[in-house]
Amino acid sequence: MNSKQIKQENIRNFSIIAHIDHGKSTLADRILEITGAISKREMVDQVLDSMDLERERGITIKLNAVSLNYHLNDEEYILNLIDTPGHVDFSYEVSRSLAACEGAILVVDATQGIEAQTLANLYLAMNADLKIIPVINKIDLPNANIPKVKEELKKVLGFKEEEIILCSGKTGEGVKDLIETIIKEVPAPKINNNKPLRALIFDSYFDPYKGVVALVKVVDGSLKEKDEILFMATNTSFEVTELGVRTPKEKHLKELVCGDVGYVVAAIKDISSVHVGDTITLVNNKASEPIHGYKPMKPMVYSGIFPVEPNKYGALKEAFLKLKLNDAALTIEPETSDALGFGFRVGFLGLLHMDIITTRIDREFSIPVITTSPSVVYHVTLTNGEKIEVDSPNKMPEAVKIKEIEEPFIYTNIIVPSDYIGSIMELCQNKRGIYKSLEYIDETRVNIHYEIPLSEVVYDFFDKLKSYTKGYASFDYEICGYKVSSLVKMNILLNGEIVDALSIIVHKDFAYQRGKAIVNKLKEVIPRQLFQIPIQASIGSKVIARETISAMHKNVLAKCYGGDITRKRKLLEKQKEGKKRMKMVGNVEVPQEAFLSILSGDEK
Amino acid sequence: MRAVYIHIPFCKTICSYCDFCKMFYYERWSSKYLIKLKEEIEDLYDGDEIKSIYIGGGTPSSLNINEIKYLMNIIKTFKTTSNFEFTFECNLNDINEELLTVLKQNKVNRLSIGIQSFQKEILNVLGRNHTFQEAKEKMALIRSFGFKNVNLDLIYAVKGQTLKMLKEDLKLFLKLNPDHISTYSLMILPNTLLWLKGTSSISEELDAKMYFYICKELSKKGFKHYEISNFAKNNKESIHNLTYWNNEEYYGFGLSASGYLDQIRYSNTKNLNKYLKGDYRANEELLTKKDIMDNELMLGFRKIAGINRVEFEKKYHIKMEDAYPIKPLLKNGDLEEKKEYIFISRDKLYVMNEILLKMI
Fold it and tell me: Nearest chain A Cα to B333, which residue?
């Protein structure tokens, strides 16, 4: 296939957007199968989600794009399916993928109806000015309620009855109809063959043989092998060594033309020179303006990551560098902690991103690490007028030097059955939320909008939301700006010594209960030792909560069973292994989970 | 010199706390079992001189008298020292003249009886049933046969037990005038009845209180506290158990038995069918010098006297303090020294795993 043999007006670029678990990936698999990109035999479920972790969690972390061929009414069409990650952490990446499309399929689960991410994604698609095709999926399920979901799509989102397509990604029913609707309804990309090249980067990944591979959509002009290209945001230039499309296997081409979605390789070693959202142009025939909408990605959440065994520092550094090859959003800088030694301050797009990275370090690199409680980025104005950004409680200046502290707030979409309005309001109020508005989706469901400090979401909002609503709530958010808050730094002391890795920033009015919750939790997770250990929470020099771990009294096997020494030995080895996963803080052995216990303390 | 352990996996009742390899006594199995046991011994025994034989279980006394005679015949295979120790574990209810006659004739010179407690509530939890009066009568019978070395097992730290109940038990145990007491702080082990019932443990604090009470009380009554949980009168320290704690070699015969021969620690299968097919071994591990030295510490520090550093150096050609961080632990009070011996401080004995983990 060469895209030039197919008319440019027969190109369709589209994404599938949906709430988590509404069947997006299964539907994509079916589309790949029906267009013949993959035979049934080759079919591994959810081809587009290629990382194990993605399959496990049922979410897409990294984007992918495939070019599909379809024959309709004697015409050959190219369908470029651009997958999007389904999590709020990656909403910027979603917006860039959508910017590469002219249409989007909005998938709604026939058994669930509209959820928070349905709306969040839809808004992103509307901002990108896409033609939206509403699809009700999973119609094969016995508990599908098609009329109700149709009603929601019509009433809440303003679609017309005849626009809505019914299908099942599982059985394939309606998928052919969907594909043909895409061809009919989604406009072809605008053709500007004669303008200087502009290609939008919507994803990138690292290939050990080729270097960085950028996934692009050619918006204006065309791109050929050996072209000298320029990344407009970073102002760096490279020579194209290879380009082509993914079908989903990589297929070499001589040229990508206007409207095409494909990949570009240019012997680029460092992924941080390829920014998602940046525009590629030609050095010799430069576009005057980059494509609108580029933002450098900024971490929202920072956490300290330390090797449990100090001699693994080098290995951990290697691991981060490898992960960073494929993850431009990850920021890493060295950090030193009195309690935990040498490690890294790592910036993430959000909590899921953080969870993915720490899991991969454990799984792929087998390095046991301690992760400290995540922190948002605070904007601090000092008494001398200077403004600084603080991403760690330990970088917070002394209270007397601070004029005011601002913290990031989010704007929520919380969709719940209306019975839970009271619970949600109570929860948001407890999380320092500011009520904004409430909309009814239908007679039984509402969308509740609050502004809540991001730090509260980082804390235990997800768990609380689940328990307050028995799991019925769906939640999505966007960052809506910074507000002044009355915040203080709280220290935790073990055996009289401040443990820097346990310090947190907390709102004054919540300090007492948070302190109490944390010392209680620490009492639970720190095992008894040979001596008594006081645990204290303090603000400045004032102790606001205290607990004591009593000394250990007993731990021997009193009898030596029938001479089975091996068994006793194994027990001891196991205990020793357990100790390896602990960190000596002063003379106290602290298990890893203690450093995250700050997140899960229950304030009752 | 080696010792011999022989496992008899049969019981007439199953105790709620027991996680040894055992099954209900059933003559068709026990007779076959003894035949295979004989073969195993004939296969493995080197003909070397033995200093101790210990028949444990299960309940060795659950075998019928002919089986016990057969077992005693097997044991004649062993070449023994003149002053060897020969222990037979008995259930109180199984003790009678006939049994004692056979044991005495066959040179058994030490009996170990699993009394555990005399408190009704505790016996209920443990799934046992006997009275002090019965024990007193059996003890008299045993003595009348001339057995001069009797061990009684005592279990404590049982859910519902108070310090007062333990004191009462200890008083009754002492009235029976045993030569040796093995104490056992109850552990709820996986796949025991107690575990299946979800029985909880008592608090660490009370457990430790009980332990230190036992140590104090038995010392007062003339018992030598010679190992964490073992107490002996008149130099009746168990030769057999000291074999383990001295990290010396021993044969293990029978279902699930473990042994230590030529630097190999092995354990037998727990599967009776396999055993009866002659498929005795379940696993073997050849120890490195480091393993052996670690074991020396793990086992040796159970002894109150501790480890003889001179003997250690003779055995391993390295000074104990060069192989392990002994000095800092002497300094911080975890360890103490007296002449050639290094031992764990009395007050740290009950948390000795912690000390061991600092060394190995």
Answer: A530
